[in-house]
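We include this case.
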Amino acid sequence: MVSLSQLCRWFDLPRRTQYYRPTKAAPVVQPALAESIKAMIEAEPSFGYLTVAGLLGLNKNTVQRIFQLKGWQVRKRAIGQRPRI
């Protein structure tokens, strides 16, 4: 059995790195904002986060983050020529 200190010396790593645990909390969505956004995109499914943010008077970054966390992103429209048949 090899100690953690010995392993760290062998691989030239600081011991502190091995004990580190990230402390970032999981993102929390405010239910009131999510409900108003959900109601709007159910009424108009083609609305993206910029349109929803503008109509609700909210910050676009907040609305986009809620879209991402809830999985409500609208598919991006294809740009360019249609394929010829």
About this structure: The two ends are 68 Å apart (CA to CA).
